[in-house]
Amino acid sequence: MRYMQLAAAGVLLCLAQAIAVPVSADQYATKDEAVAMVKQAIARVAEVGMDKAKPEFMDHGGKFVDRDLYLVVIDKQGVRVVHGQNPKLVGKLYFDAVDVNGKEYGKDVEQIAAGPGKGWISFMFKDPITGKVLPKENYVEKAADYIYTVGIYTR
User: Fold this and answer.
1) Burial of 120 by CB count in 10 Å (0-12 exposed, 13-18 middle, 19+ buried)?
2) Distance (Å, rounded) from C-alpha 133 to C-alpha 125?
3) Cβ of 33: how many Cβ atoms within 10 Å?
């Protein structure tokens, strides 16, 4: 009897996976939405400070984690103070970040922060929606003591 229940559960799982809805274009954010999220984060820190804003930035039910959009905030030393998708990366150096192809995208962010203060970078990264490594573009903007970045997957 127990074997039959387990077998039935396995069949249901296989069926659910077979009829899973594919990811649609409307599940992905746009460049404008990425820029808007960075601007909202900068305004929020100016309003309440990083200590109060940080939990909001990392809340998966809040407005700073939306589909494939999430915020990463880096301090002047290049250390992540916020990572909206993976809290284990908080406290780790960002400027030495390298993608799966060896591209040093952390250095690209450092150069934007030291130079024009805002711009876009491109690299490969794991998409939180599909779990696949996809091309990603991140908007980067330096404001006060922090560097803010939000990315979109370009598929």
Assistant:
1) middle
2) 5
3) 17
Q: How many residues can be counted in the chain?
A: 155
- Give the tens place of pLDDT for each residue, 78-89: 999 999 999 999
DSSP H/E element including 64: none
What digits encode the pLDDT tens for the residues 86-142?
999 999 999 999 999 999 999 999 999 999 999 999 999 988 778 899 999 999 999
Cα 65 to Cα 61: distance, rounded to the nearest angstrom: 7
Contact 76, 70 (CB under 8 A): no
Show the tokens assigned to 77: 């030393």
At a CB cut-off of 8 Å and minimum separation 6, what does 126 contact? 132, 133, 134
